[in-house]
Design goal:
Elements: H1 4-15, H2 19-22, E1 29-36, E2 42-47, H3 50-58, E3 71-79, H4 82-94
Antiparallel strand pairs: 1-2, 1-3
Length: 97
Amino acid sequence: MVGVAQLVSLSWPLSRPCQARKRKIVVDYTVYILRSIKTKRLYIGFTSDIKRRLLEHNGGKVLSTRNRGPYEIIYTETASLRQEALKRERYFKNMKR
């Protein structure tokens, strides 16, 4: 037979809220401008992993840049919130060239 003290000690950790849910994951976003080495055209975007994204662009995995690569990064800036990065991306895309 299990005593009351044993039941409390067994159920207590299970009733505590998960600590992982309380933590916020910090992700920085990078707004970037790429230039095609082949055509000199610009591409503007944002991502949470700039190295992976450049590999995707140069590897032909992005439909809008597939036939214009290879690309080089000519500008980057970081934003702590996704909304900030999106706002900066729109700013650059709406600039007159």
